[in-house]
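Teaching note: in complex prediction, the entire set of molecules is handled at once rather than each chain in isolation. The prompt given to students was simply: 'Predict the structure of this complex.' The entities are:
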Amino acid sequence: MPTTSTRVANTPSSPIRRLVPYAEAAKKRGVGVFHLNIGQPDILTPKTGVKALQEADLAVIAYSHSAGMLSYREKLVEFYSRYEVSVTTEQMIVTNGGSEALLFALLASADAGDEVIVPEPFYANYNGFAKSLDINIVPITAHIENGFALPAMEDFEKKISPKTKAILICNPSNPTGYLYSVEELEKLRSIVQKHDLFLIADEVYRDFCYEGQKHTSILAIEGMDEHAIVIDSISKRYSACGARMGVVLSKNEHLMTEAMKLAQARLSPSSLAQILGEGLIDTPQSYFAEVTEEYDKRRQTVIKRLHAMEGVVCPNPKGAFYAFAKFPVDNADTFCQWLLEEFSHNGKTVMMAPGAGFYDTEGLGTQEARIAYVLNSDDLNTAMDCLEAALKVYPGRLKVNEINLDAN
Amino acid sequence: MPTTSTRVANTPSSPIRRLVPYAEAAKKRGVGVFHLNIGQPDILTPKTGVKALQEADLAVIAYSHSAGMLSYREKLVEFYSRYEVSVTTEQMIVTNGGSEALLFALLASADAGDEVIVPEPFYANYNGFAKSLDINIVPITAHIENGFALPAMEDFEKKISPKTKAILICNPSNPTGYLYSVEELEKLRSIVQKHDLFLIADEVYRDFCYEGQKHTSILAIEGMDEHAIVIDSISKRYSACGARMGVVLSKNEHLMTEAMKLAQARLSPSSLAQILGEGLIDTPQSYFAEVTEEYDKRRQTVIKRLHAMEGVVCPNPKGAFYAFAKFPVDNADTFCQWLLEEFSHNGKTVMMAPGAGFYDTEGLGTQEARIAYVLNSDDLNTAMDCLEAALKVYPGRLKVNEINLDAN
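The expected output is the structure of the full assembly:
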């Protein structure tokens, strides 16, 4: 039999989906499963987009420009100006999802064997992309007791080597909900300027910030033009995950010239999704106010309930729609599997994403799990009832004196 | 300024699009340009697909399964059975275009530094993918005087090294229109079996064969289960290039497990395009008969006209919608640029794709160009009038005694 590649052998399977067979088995047994494991919102996709698609002339569904339809890019220019981000149509390439935007950013900035520094815990699929491209992710641990704030500059300095090509952040963060302050972004600027690195920021959750906080794009920070690469997507903004419509933005002209070669090799992004995306830009601003209010309500529901559970530690997320919590259990992976395999409460149980999969450093996050608050508050409350009941009976629960509330 | 990667620096820009600025300038001067340079057909996308999309419930455009919606994969199983290809829903991963299918196939089969053998001339974007993934394409030259038939087995044997992981073919071929016979596919089977290689076949043009010829998928050849990887797409089949909807198929279970890691990292293919694709499978078979008849008419128009031009050599394409011709000119690249920059005939000119971009071996194809017969026969005839007139006045035309009709 022909041998497959080592790079994909080294690529981890998606940790988020490992538990799927257990969830399917639970459902077959008649147990209802609250899916808090994935970031698929139940929010409706705004009708402006679907209307644009349904009214479009689709007589011949043709290739678009490799960088995306000019009309769509022009609307994106206007869209980003709302966020104090000033870009031109030449400074963006429309992509098949934020995933392809990340693929282009990584390929254009790093060779095989190069290193990209990423604060952990981080979105597990970053590892999938990096490993398959022979790029080494160098993690810098953020700590739950600091609410997952940006690690100290000294920690970054220690990790930088001649192989370092970029720092990759997710802001607001999947999986922690942490929102970087302008001061933190300026610290990152000083590092990437000093060491001549790219700063890649995944900003797909920018629209969802809470408690009066405001997201700042790295493209709005002065002195970053040569360094900043932004990954964006309509998936979360408009609850249109299945459209696979993203964009990679940079003011670094040479970087964009290089990325365009990759864009041309795959011919064009989806024309259907671009028509949808163009329509979605006309979504009234009130949509975001309403959706953010809804997510905020869910966030408060989940956080309040988690904080009421003995031994559970969970920083207050300021953005995105995830909470990253530490549980008083022997092992969160085992706990999550047990929830699906052996537990139910009034015929229901909960599926979460085990935390270890979000860390690159072996042994970290073993008591943690990510909760996506993508269900309505009633369902979330019932899900939290399950979780609370489960923590009381789980055989691997820790005794109160075994719980270390501070340690990561 | 941060440095970009060497692998993308080494990735060639799309040769097909190099002449685009000259075409744009011609249009600004008021010269009409017949685009024979790209494979964007003018054929209508069947309404069954668009109807499915317009009638779908798009309240929440959600992620699908990473391998594609089960309902779509089930319909694909039925679809492939029409071609005597027997596959299961587990033996396919739905992708964002044939491009992503190729990306998955290459990444899963080859490491950085590994080699993939490709008969040249070949689809230029194969190079874009391979170079950016640090995979070396090893070309084997097919010759115009043999109609671009499969090179001799000894040629393959000579090129195989310990680094060889796969042979990649396009059948029917973009850019030559060559259709491999069952005997040729069986020869390839003996090679991949003997050397334990993958055989990757890009079969996106399978529906368009002429002169009573029939396409055979490598998945229909016995003894290939562990070796065959098929790249497919709805782009050409249903004239839906902008949908970016492809699929990678293999009966090699381990290969598919590896490819699934890549599919999961990018979450899912486009849900919109899958709904379209599912509807398109209901397209009546008469559509293919009509479209093939139309392409055949165009093919005959182009070939007849080319054969009537002094010194032009062009094998008769048996599939796809491309003709690959050799012209009595000093350099086809210069000729193609001159056609756009300096020539017009009754206010019109022709854009072709210069042949050298389809060869990996330096110096080959310099008198050749690819013609996509994607316009109606009247336009093609007028385009051929332009080409014929151009060949009479082009300053770099060869004298009759300089033309070598046999050499490649």
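Point out the following to students. The radius of gyration of chain B is 21 Å. Chain B has a mean pLDDT of 95.
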